[in-house]
């Protein structure tokens, strides 16, 4: 009977452990997790500031600033003198898509390199130029992006000037109108130091919370009677109270030992007297 009872007890404990592991894996006590975060608030704050500092420093001292300058072309031409009708507007809309592709073609880039006496390939130069067309307009934006404000302005204007001659010759149409020449940019377009600093702070916060979450999930230490019940599925019979004292009172043990010695001495005396 004793062996059967022992087997049943071991089986019950195994089932409790298995059930406890399943509960541990499937359930996350959000309040306990939040409490874990609060207990390590200093770690989270430090991680946040480290992330902000690192990303801010890289943004300010490592990444080279870029400057943008934009020239604008208006794609339309009057077919009847100075009068613009609906047909001209429709033609301008159709031509805009074609001009958008031709402006960033290699022949235009090669002519810009020749005019400005640049020492780079057309492919490399075209990476600095972008063309955009706002929706429902016949306006083309020619934007140059470089590490120099003056270079960005010169490139945007030169691409526009070369296009004014290249486009009509290629498509046998009237030249587009200059809506706006590029100007010297007075501030950088990228990087944004404030945005990168905020991104760094956010990533630092997320990383810290991720580390603490993994730490919390891997911690299978039983801290309370409630943890014991959740883990094993049974109520604990008793618990050891918290305290700063030792589990064994050394002084108390010495006193008991001394009492036993005195009893032995008294016993010997009584035996001798008899």
Number of alpha- plus pi-helical segments: 10
* Rg over alpha carbons: 41 Å
Secondary-structure element series: HHHEHHHEEHEHHH
Overall form: elongated
Query: Helix proportion of residues, in percent?
Result: 55-70%
- Stretches where pLDDT is under 50 for at least 5 consecutive residues are 1-5, 22-26
How much of the sequence is in beta strands?
5-15%
Give the strand line-up of the largest sheet: 2-3-1-4
| CATH fold-level label of the largest domain | Alpha-Beta Plaits
Task: Walk me through the structure.
The protein contains ten helices and four strands; from the N terminus they run H-H-H-E-H-H-H-E-E-H-E-H-H-H. It has 274 residues and is an alpha+beta fold. It has two domains: 94 residues, no CATH class; 117 residues, Alpha-Beta Plaits (2-Layer Sandwich), CATH 3.30.70. Strands 2-3-1-4 form a four-stranded antiparallel beta sheet. Strand 2 and strand 3 form a beta hairpin. Helix 3 packs antiparallel against helix 8 and helix 5 packs across helix 7. The longest helix has 26 residues. The radius of gyration is 41 Å and the shape is elongated. The two termini are 51 Å apart. The N terminus is likely disordered.
């Amino acid at each position: 009977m004793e062996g059967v009872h022992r087997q049943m007890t071991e089986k019950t404990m195994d089932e409790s452990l298995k059930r406890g592991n399943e509960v541990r894996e499937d359930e996350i006590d959000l309040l306990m997790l939040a409490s874990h975060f609060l207990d390590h608030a200093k770690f989270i704050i430090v991680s946040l500031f480290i992330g902000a500092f690192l990303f801010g420093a890289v943004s300010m001292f490592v990444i080279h600033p870029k400057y943008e300058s934009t020239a604008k072309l208006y794609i339309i031409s009057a077919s009847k003198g100075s009068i613009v009708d609906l047909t001209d507007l429709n033609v301008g809309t159709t031509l805009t898509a074609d001009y958008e592709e031709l402006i960033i073609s290699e022949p235009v880039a090669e002519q810009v390199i020749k005019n400005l006496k640049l020492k780079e390939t057309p492919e490399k130069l075209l990476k600095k130029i972008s063309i955009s067309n706002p929706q429902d307009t016949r306006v083309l934006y020619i934007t140059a992006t470089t590490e120099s404000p003056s270079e960005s302005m010169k490139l945007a204007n030169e691409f526009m000037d070369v296009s004014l001659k290249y486009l009509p010759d290629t498509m046998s149409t009237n030249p587009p109108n200059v809506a706006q020449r590029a100007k010297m940019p007075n501030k950088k377009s990228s990087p944004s130091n404030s945005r990168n600093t905020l991104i760094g702070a956010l990533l630092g916060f997320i990383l810290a919370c991720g580390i603490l979450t993994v730490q919390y999930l891997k911690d299978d230490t039983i801290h309370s009677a409630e943890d014991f019940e959740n883990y094993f599925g049974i109520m604990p019979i008793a618990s050891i109270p918290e305290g700063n004292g030792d589990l064994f009172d050394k002084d108390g043990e010495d006193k008991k030992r001394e009492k036993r010695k005195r009893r032995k001495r008294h016993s010997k005396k009584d035996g001798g007297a008899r």
